Amino acid sequence: MYALDGYGFFATELRATAEFIGLIGIQRMSFLLPGRSVYAVEIGWRLNEKSWGKGLATEGARACLDLAFEQFHLPEVVAFTIPVNLPSRRVMEKLRMTRNPDDDFDHPRLPTGHPLQRHVLYRIQQSDWQRGL
Ligand SMILES: CC(C)(COP(=O)(O)OP(=O)(O)OC[C@H]1O[C@@H](n2cnc3c(N)ncnc32)[C@H](O)[C@@H]1OP(=O)(O)O)[C@@H](O)C(=O)NCCC(=O)NCCS
Hints:
3-stranded antiparallel beta sheet, globular, 4 helices, binds coenzyme A, alpha+beta, Aminopeptidase, 4-stranded antiparallel beta sheet, 29% strand
């Protein structure tokens, strides 16, 4: 992905100690969102449990949105998760990403009827990110 697009998910370390705590990054999606003909770029995060609740995912994700919009000039970044993942949704909201329920979708990699199939989609446009800087 780094070779193809110049970006991907990054190993994430604490600034103070360089301890590895998880991953945060942007990547081109491997499937098309419903109604789209171009693969969207998603932002995502996963940290080890002891690092939760300190604002670290949001801090790292902000840096990744800067990268997406200022360095790679992407028009839009999306994020998605299952509806009950409230911490992840809260990170999306703190990044000023917004959700239109009409964009929610069934994840195509999960079998029909799977309890985790439904996903909520959030997005942010380059112009909205830059307006808030
Ligand atoms: C999602 C995840 C990356 C968030 O990391 P984090 O560093 O704790 O995130 P932040 O501290 O930046 O923000 C978390 C927010 O969620 C809120 N939150 C935590 N638990 C919550 C809950 N049960 N209900 C509602 N909000 C909750 C926190 O209060 C915080 O919001 P605030 O700053 O307004 O108080 C982390 O929980 C994680 O790695 N989870 C497991 C992997 C995962 O689910 N990845 C996402 C897949 S889509």
